[in-house]
Design a protein that fits this description.
two-stranded antiparallel ribbon; 4 helices; homodimer; mainly beta
């Protein structure tokens, strides 16, 4: 069950789409992965905007608030196209179960050019050990059966021991993101990639699950074929909250996506 | 006309509040400053959550989508409290004119501790020239009459010449944020501070106004009294979009707020 099939939408009319939240994209506890839900919402947003004449297929800016965690299984995505403009379109999309919103995302869609280079600036790609020296997990929760893999640099990874996950205290994880079938990773899939990593706080402190409260993702370029590299780092843990920042580069070293999220962290003791 | 009075809310019942968008917080073109509108929405979100029993007065995570630019003058803020939880509350707030939404923001509210230190990590404060050596503009659009000032480090500033704004090509601005009356800057006011700076892209490229499409702000700590320091930098300009990141520190060097925004940039030529 790959990501395309796991995010297939059934048009229900009136800007609503049915989706089946699949166990292959569950995290511990049997809840759907946040990036996976965002990916489904992004697909619906692009489809809804296109249906209203938008020429903007790429989610250049996405903001999402996680209100309640839905269950696996059937869900409905409700969309509202608020703007179809010359350079951007904007869409709000809500993931509903039992007609109640669980996840609400706002999308600004644009049209990125193929193989474009930045006009100015860069975020230099980080080095990661060669793929064959990395420790692979299935992507987004570690499932081996969802067609994606995260391959962690041994020097920027976490260990899962009997007391829970632990790491080197650096606050930083680095991994390759790989599609098992070698297929292209499109801009909407970058929404999944941005939130596919385990919490970077695990490198610093052992805790229970670290729920995302609010996440923002920017898609900056259409990825070239091949594995992506991800750096995921926590900057500050304070007052029970942690900010975690992802940078994603394609195989040519171009920055293709950026994200930042605020997570809730219950500290031990 | 200071920020408190310029964001005074009139309860209208049903989670709605009246607000008067003031010319002291206008940018060029006579439109209200984005950070000012976000500040007004934040005040309404906190009030609406409190009215439903929330014990969370601080906007720890805020995401906002700018859909249409409202005019100065009367506006209505409509709120919807979606969660009043143990550790956080969540509120959606919409700025309406003519009953149409122009700006939509999602707030996650929490309770920050007074004078707390981070559990882990830091973003070290940048150096800025002493206040008396800096070039002061009125805050948020350069108005001298709104009770706030931005005082720019001469080495990280922009110049306004006959051909428009220009800078040193660094992509980075640094300034002090000062309240003229020396009063405290509360966590909701940090939403204004996060978006009070002129575009950092002006240091790199002359362009027309640089509208914010989507902005995220995290409030990480309650500021100590005194001026704040702001670093505002653009990382990558590509395909007509630029990401701009703000870090804000208090007088004790603590990181009190972080923001990131995606802006639209029409390049010359």
């Amino acid at each position: 069950m790959d990501l395309e099939r796991a995010s297939a939408l059934t048009p229900l009319g009136g800007g609503r789409y049915g989706v089946e939240l699949r166990p292959e994209f569950a995290i511990g506890g049997g809840k759907p992965n946040g990036g996976y839900m965002l990916h489904c919402l992004g697909r619906a947003a692009v489809a809804a905007a296109a249906a209203e004449g938008s020429a903007h297929p790429h989610p250049v800016a996405t903001g999402v608030q996680y209100q309640q965690s839905p269950d696996l299984g059937a869900a409905v995505i409700e969309t509202e196209v608020t703007r179809v403009g010359r350079s951007v379109s904007q869409v709000t999309a809500r993931l509903l179960q039992d007609e109640r919103p669980h996840v609400v995302a706002r999308f600004t869609l644009g049209a990125l050019a193929e193989a474009s280079a930045p006009y100015w600036g860069e975020v230099p790609p980080v080095s990661i050990a060669p793929l064959e020296e990395c420790n692979s997990f299935g992507g987004g929760g570690g499932r081996p059966d969802n067609g994606t893999r995260l391959a962690f640099d041994p020097n920027h990874s976490i260990q899962f021991g009997p007391d829970g996950p632990s790491g080197d205290g650096s606050g930083e994880l680095r991994a390759w993101f790989v599609r098992d079938d070698g297929g292209d990773i499109d801009p909407v899939t970058l929404l999944y990639v941005c939130d596919a990593m385990p919490p970077a706080t695990f490198t610093v402190v052992q805790s229970g699950w670290v729920p995302t409260l609010d996440l923002t993702a920017y898609v900056r370029a259409i990825p070239a074929p091949g594995p992506l590299r991800i750096r995921f780092r926590v900057q500050v843990i304070a007052d029970g909250f942690a900010d975690e920042v992802a940078d994603v580069w394609d195989s040519e070293g171009r920055l293709v996506a950026q994200s930042t999220q605020l997570t809730a962290l219950r500290l031990p003791g």
